[in-house]
């Protein structure tokens, strides 16, 4: 199992898992999210819909992880290894 797959499994098991913003970005790219633009601190990713991420310190906010998991579930995305 790759590092990104282990990270995805950990987040899936517990969305409150503390992950860094860099890990979260790797997870976004691995599931097919594409960075379309950066405006200030806002990073806009696109899959079937726009997902805006606000990096705030080192750790990612829990609501962003939960929203990410909702989008992955809604659109049937999976981790590309």
UniProtKB/TrEMBL annotation:
Keywords per UniProt: Endonuclease, Hydrolase, Nuclease, RNA-binding, Stress response, Toxin-antitoxin system
The record, for InterPro entries, names: HicA_mRNA_interferase, HicA_sf
Gene Ontology MF annotations: endonuclease activity; hydrolase activity; mRNA binding
**Record's superkingdom?**
Bacteria
Pfam families the UniProt entry points to: HicA_toxin
The entry sums up its family as follows: Belongs to the HicA mRNA interferase family.
Q: What is this protein called?
A: Type II toxin-antitoxin system HicA family toxin
